[in-house]
Amino acid sequence: MSKMFKKFEFFLFLVIVALIVFFAFSTENFFTLENLLDLLISYSFLGIMAAGMLVVLISGGIDLSFTAIATVAQYIMAIVIINYSGNLFSAFLVAGIIGIVLGGTNALLIYYLKAPAMIITIATLNLFYGFTIFITRGRWIYNFPDWFNQSHNVFSFTAADGTYYGIPLPVILLVLVFILTYIILKYTILGRKIFAMGGNIEAARRAGFNILGLTIFVYSYIGFLSGIGSVGQVLILHSVQPNAIVGRELEVIAATVLGGASLAGGAGSVLGTAMGVALLAIVWNGLIIMGVSSYWHKLIIGLIIICSVGINAYNRKRNALGGN
Amino acid sequence: MNEEILTMHNISKNYGGVHALRSVDFSIKKGEVHCLVGENGSGKSTLIKIISGVVQPEKGAEIIINHKKENYLTPIKSIQKGIQVIYQDLSVFPNLTIGENIFMNYYAKGSIRWVDWKNIKNVARETIKKVKVNLDFNETVGSLSIADRQLVAICRAIATNAQLIIMDEPTSSLARHEIDALFSVIQQLRNAGITVLFVSHKLDEVMEISERVTVLRDGSKVGLFKRTEIDDKKLSYLMTGKEFVQEKLSEKVENRKALLEVKNLSKKNEYEDINFKLHQGEILGIVGMIGSGRTELAFSLFGMNPPNHGQILLEGKQVHFKSNESAIEAGIGYVPEDRIDQGLIMEQTIKNNATVTIFEKLLNHLKMIDKKKQQSTAQHWINTLSIRTSNIENPVKTLSGGNQQKIVLSKWLATNPKILILDSPTVGVDIAAKNSLYQIMRELSQRNIGIILISDEVPEILYNCHYILLMRKGRIVETFQPEEVTEKELNDKIIGDGQDE
Question: Which of residues 290-319 of A touch B (CB under 8 A)?
Answer without folding.
Answer: 319
